[in-house]
């Protein structure tokens, strides 16, 4: 849990808009309170049509009002925003986004948004047509230009039978973004990746041997997902190419799911064509079987093992580094090394950096299976210009931000 600048519990204002997704904000509120945050809920009058004030009061432990006329002597329309460490609006309806963009203030939530000087996060939820309308997109652009973090809505089932983009991201993923923003403190107000399009790959590919078996690796995708979440928290438009990852979609991220290295290659190359940065955190298989058996490979009566011929897969990192559609794009690779008779981990990684041609190489010593599936990581970042950065053990989110710090600095250069 982050700590407020005053040394107390982080003070979070949870604004709730008048959409059917308001019921999901109850889960978000629970996550904040159970992790020790001090939460003030400020619903709109329309939101109270979906979830009543007693529910918000019971879950937050505080009285709840949508009106500026309650407890006027405490001047809540000013005080709540002034004392907040974070304001998150979920769901943020089209109406709320419009009011926030134009500075309208006709209830407690919109006045709070005008007085807040802390990071502000909007999690929109509405029908696809409303999200795609030029007016809404202009309002979102205005809010982002002012430093607010507007998370891209998810795709999926909407109200009624409709399906499309406009669904509220899952509360757990909104919470993860908010915790990240709180942890960064004042730095979160500087969206240094705003307006940037980034591509992140995650997970490990599988190469089929027969209908039930495959060649794979131990990559969990946790570091790649942490990179995607961190990029969202810094304002980027993120595409995540995920290979065989059993994790929930990060809030605000376009997720493309793949299985094989060939599929990963096709999706990364396509997405990289318009990207400002590509971070190859996935672990693609170096080899695949020359042929795939149409039937399950059976055990031999004499106990002999079948011979499997392997062919080399495309080197995705090498290709996107040497054949850049955008010369100014920043390319980041990962190297999971153990060291051997030919060299140490860093010696092998340095040679790999030169061979691949990327701008940065994040080196993990995976001797004994370290890193895989762990919530923590430590690394060394090698740069093509010779810079070497040791990243001490910490959460994979912390490591992700160090990587994005390096990328953002190269944008500036």
From TrEMBL:
<keyword id="KW-0511">Multifunctional enzyme</keyword>
<feature type="domain" description="Flavoprotein">
    <location>
        <begin position="11"/>
        <end position="181"/>
    </location>
</feature>
<comment type="function">
    <text>Catalyzes two steps in the biosynthesis of coenzyme A. In the first step cysteine is conjugated to 4'-phosphopantothenate to form 4-phosphopantothenoylcysteine, in the latter compound is decarboxylated to form 4'-phosphopantotheine.</text>
</comment>
<comment type="similarity">
    <text>In the C-terminal section; belongs to the PPC synthetase family.</text>
</comment>
<feature type="binding site">
    <location>
        <position position="286"/>
    </location>
    <ligand>
        <name>CTP</name>
    </ligand>
</feature>
<comment type="pathway">
    <text>Cofactor biosynthesis; coenzyme A biosynthesis; CoA from (R)-pantothenate: step 2/5.</text>
</comment>
<feature type="domain" description="DNA/pantothenate metabolism flavoprotein C-terminal">
    <location>
        <begin position="193"/>
        <end position="409"/>
    </location>
</feature>
<dbReference type="GO" id="GO:0015937">
    <property type="term" value="P:coenzyme A biosynthetic process"/>
</dbReference>
<keyword id="KW-0210">Decarboxylase</keyword>
<feature type="region of interest" description="Phosphopantothenate--cysteine ligase">
    <location>
        <begin position="198"/>
        <end position="413"/>
    </location>
</feature>
<dbReference type="InterPro" id="IPR007085">
    <property type="entry name" value="DNA/pantothenate-metab_flavo_C"/>
</dbReference>
<dbReference type="GO" id="GO:0004633">
    <property type="term" value="F:phosphopantothenoylcysteine decarboxylase activity"/>
</dbReference>
<dbReference type="GO" id="GO:0046872">
    <property type="term" value="F:metal ion binding"/>
</dbReference>
<feature type="binding site">
    <location>
        <position position="334"/>
    </location>
    <ligand>
        <name>CTP</name>
    </ligand>
</feature>
<keyword id="KW-0288">FMN</keyword>
<dbReference type="Pfam" id="PF02441">
    <property type="entry name" value="Flavoprotein"/>
</dbReference>
<keyword id="KW-0460">Magnesium</keyword>
<dbReference type="Pfam" id="PF04127">
    <property type="entry name" value="DFP"/>
</dbReference>
<feature type="binding site">
    <location>
        <position position="296"/>
    </location>
    <ligand>
        <name>CTP</name>
    </ligand>
</feature>
<dbReference type="InterPro" id="IPR035929">
    <property type="entry name" value="CoaB-like_sf"/>
</dbReference>
<dbReference type="GO" id="GO:0015941">
    <property type="term" value="P:pantothenate catabolic process"/>
</dbReference>
<keyword id="KW-0436">Ligase</keyword>
<keyword id="KW-0456">Lyase</keyword>
<feature type="region of interest" description="Phosphopantothenoylcysteine decarboxylase">
    <location>
        <begin position="1"/>
        <end position="197"/>
    </location>
</feature>
<dbReference type="InterPro" id="IPR005252">
    <property type="entry name" value="CoaBC"/>
</dbReference>
<comment type="pathway">
    <text>Cofactor biosynthesis; coenzyme A biosynthesis; CoA from (R)-pantothenate: step 3/5.</text>
</comment>
<dbReference type="GO" id="GO:0010181">
    <property type="term" value="F:FMN binding"/>
</dbReference>
<comment type="similarity">
    <text>In the N-terminal section; belongs to the HFCD (homo-oligomeric flavin containing Cys decarboxylase) superfamily.</text>
</comment>
<comment type="function">
    <text>Catalyzes two sequential steps in the biosynthesis of coenzyme A. In the first step cysteine is conjugated to 4'-phosphopantothenate to form 4-phosphopantothenoylcysteine. In the second step the latter compound is decarboxylated to form 4'-phosphopantotheine.</text>
</comment>
<dbReference type="GO" id="GO:0071513">
    <property type="term" value="C:phosphopantothenoylcysteine decarboxylase complex"/>
</dbReference>
<keyword id="KW-0479">Metal-binding</keyword>
<dbReference type="GO" id="GO:0004632">
    <property type="term" value="F:phosphopantothenate--cysteine ligase activity"/>
</dbReference>
<feature type="binding site">
    <location>
        <position position="352"/>
    </location>
    <ligand>
        <name>CTP</name>
    </ligand>
</feature>
<keyword id="KW-0285">Flavoprotein</keyword>
<dbReference type="InterPro" id="IPR036551">
    <property type="entry name" value="Flavin_trans-like"/>
</dbReference>
<protein>
    <recommendedName>
        <fullName>Coenzyme A biosynthesis bifunctional protein CoaBC</fullName>
        <ecNumber>4.1.1.36</ecNumber>
        <ecNumber>6.3.2.5</ecNumber>
    </recommendedName>
</protein>
<feature type="binding site">
    <location>
        <position position="356"/>
    </location>
    <ligand>
        <name>CTP</name>
    </ligand>
</feature>
<dbReference type="InterPro" id="IPR003382">
    <property type="entry name" value="Flavoprotein"/>
</dbReference>
């Amino acid at each position: 849990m982050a700590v407020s600048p005053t040394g107390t519990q982080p003070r979070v204002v949870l604004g709730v808009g008048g959409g059917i997704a308001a019921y999901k904000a109850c889960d978000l509120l629970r996550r904040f309170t159970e992790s020790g945050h001090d939460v003030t809920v400020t619903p709109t009058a329309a939101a109270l049509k979906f979830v009543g004030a007693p529910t918000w009061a019971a879950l937050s432990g505080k009285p709840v009002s949508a009106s500026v006329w309650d407890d006027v002597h405490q001047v809540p329309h000013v005080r709540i925003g002034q004392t907040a460490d974070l304001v998150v609006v979920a769901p943020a309806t089209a109406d709320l986004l419009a009011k926030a963009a134009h500075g309208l203030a006709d209830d407690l939530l919109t006045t709070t948004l005008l007085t807040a000087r802390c990071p502000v996060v909007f999690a929109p939820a509405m029908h696809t047509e409303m999200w795609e309308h030029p007016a809404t997109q202009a309002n979102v652009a205005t809010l982002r230009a002012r430093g607010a973090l507007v998370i891209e809505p998810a795709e999926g089932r909407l109200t009624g039978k409709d399906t499309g983009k406009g669904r509220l991201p899952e509360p757990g993923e909104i919470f993860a973004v908010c915790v990240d923003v709180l942890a960064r403190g004042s730095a979160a107000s500087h969206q240094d990746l705003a307006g940037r399009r980034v591509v992140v790959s995650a997970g490990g590919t599988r190469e089929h041997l027969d209908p039930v078996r495959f060649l794979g690796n131990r990559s969990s995708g946790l570091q790649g997902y942490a990179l995607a979440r961190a990029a969202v928290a810094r304002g980027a438009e993120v595409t995540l190419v995920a290979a065989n990852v059993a994790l929930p979609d990060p809030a605000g991220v376009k997720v493309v799911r793949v299985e094989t290295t060939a599929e990963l290659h096709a999706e990364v190359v396509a997405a990289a064509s318009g990207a400002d940065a590509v971070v190859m955190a996935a672990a693609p298989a170096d080899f695949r079987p020359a042929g795939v058996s149409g039937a399950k490979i059976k055990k031999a009566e004499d106990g002999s093992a079948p011979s499997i011929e392997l062919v080399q897969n495309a080197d995705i990192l090498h290709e996107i580094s040497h054949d850049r559609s955008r010369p100014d794009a920043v390319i980041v690779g990962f190297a999971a090394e153990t060291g051997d008779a030919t060299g140490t981990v860093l010696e092998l990684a340095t040679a790999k950096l030169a061979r691949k041609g990327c701008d940065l190489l994040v080196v993990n010593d995976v001797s004994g299976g370290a890193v895989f599936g762990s919530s923590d990581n430590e690394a060394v970042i090698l740069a093509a210009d010779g810079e070497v950065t040791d990243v001490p053990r910490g959460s994979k989110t912390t490591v992700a931000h160090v990587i994005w710090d390096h990328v953002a600095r190269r944008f500036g250069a």
